[in-house]
């Protein structure tokens, strides 16, 4: 794992690998209390960290498994209170419940259950507490404000340090892949609204779950993420105008390209996620498209490349 000191008390921590959706980057705050945010490294690295720098409180940004697995280690190996965002409790109580609420409606229950249980290693979580939107946590000099940023997941939360102007985005898609909304419980319109709200914050250091650290061109990075969404919408609209079928649009890719070359069961998961992402766009397009809802960023975000 790689540690980067952001201030005397705030450290950004990245795992050695993010393959197989098993880990993400997180933040350790070491003030009058030690607070961990999404510190989901490999099992060995997480345990090392929990033993050498035991937290007082541990926060999870949202229920997706690449942010959650460390929670069980926190409960088993430390005295810390583990917090998840209010509204996502039902996802984490049991493996079956999580599967039903994610791949359940798509019909990949056996494959997804096997993957979660045996590749990712999730069996359900109990003994956690919940935090509320806008909760503030103090660790001496540092105050951490929980900023609701739904859309990527129902209660997805970002963490803002107002004094230092640091924002830990969580999974807002400020990375080379762009925003992701591949479950039925995602909400594309909410995600865009969340991104615009976060973009308006006064931020000097942007810490992301999968895209590293940004200290310059932060608004531009948000615009790039938003532009990726708009380009997907335009791509889908163009394909529809050309008479392409749903299957053909998914095959060409919304988020994931070259899916047919990937080994099973991951290939089926990629088709599932792109299918849900297409659903999100179709819902918004039926109501006039994103430009209908977010005219205020039209001049910033919309490209004029439509053919
Ligand atoms: Fe996520």
UniProtKB/TrEMBL annotation:
Pfam families, per database record: Lactamase_B
SMART domains: Lactamase_B
Residue ranges occupied by any Metallo-beta-lactamase domain in the UniProt entry: 23-210
Signal sequence, renumbered to the chain: none
InterPro entries, alphabetized: Metallo-B-lactamas, NDM-1-like, RibonucZ/Hydroxyglut_hydro
One BP annotation, GO: antibiotic catabolic process
PANTHER family for this protein: ACYL-COENZYME A THIOESTERASE MBLAC2, METALLO-BETA-LACTAMASE DOMAIN-CONTAINING
Similarity comment: Belongs to the metallo-beta-lactamase superfamily. Class-B beta-lactamase family.
Protein name: Beta-lactamase domain-containing protein
Species this protein is from: Desulfonema magnum
């Amino acid at each position: 794992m790689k540690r980067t000191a952001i201030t005397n008390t705030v450290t950004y921590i990245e795992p050695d690998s993010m393959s197989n959706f098993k880990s993400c980057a997180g933040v350790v705050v070491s003030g009058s209390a030690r607070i961990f945010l999404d510190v989901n490294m490999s099992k060995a690295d997480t345990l090392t960290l929990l033993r050498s720098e035991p937290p007082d409180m541990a926060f999870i940004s949202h229920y997706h498994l690449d942010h959650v697995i460390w929670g069980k280690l926190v409960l088993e190996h430390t005295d810390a209170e583990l917090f998840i965002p209010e509204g996502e409790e039902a996802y984490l109580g049991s493996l079956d419940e999580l599967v039903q609420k994610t791949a359940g409606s798509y019909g990949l229950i056996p494959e997804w259950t096997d993957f979660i249980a045996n590749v990712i290693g999730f069996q359900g979580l109990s003994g956690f507490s919940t935090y509320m939107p806008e909760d503030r946590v103090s660790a001496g000099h540092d105050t951490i404000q929980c900023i609701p940023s739904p859309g990527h997941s129902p209660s997805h939360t970002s963490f803002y340090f107002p004094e230092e102007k640091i924002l830990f985005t969580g999974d807002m898609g400020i990375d080379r892949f762009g925003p992701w909304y591949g479950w039925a419980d995602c909400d594309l319109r909410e995600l865009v609204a969340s991104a615009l709200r976060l973009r308006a914050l006064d931020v000097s250091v942007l810490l992301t779950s999968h895209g590293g650290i940004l200290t310059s061109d932060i608004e531009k990075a948000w615009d790039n993420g938003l532009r990726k969404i708009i380009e997907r919408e335009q791509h889908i609209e163009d394909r529809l105008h050309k008479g392409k079928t749903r299957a053909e649009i998914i095959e060409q890719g919304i988020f994931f390209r070259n899916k047919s070359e990937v080994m099973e069961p991951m290939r089926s998961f990629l088709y599932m996620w792109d299918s849900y992402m297409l659903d999100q766009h179709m819902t918004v397009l039926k109501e006039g498209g994103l430009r209908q809802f977010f005219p205020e960023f039209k001049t910033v975000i919309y490209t004029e490349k439509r053919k």
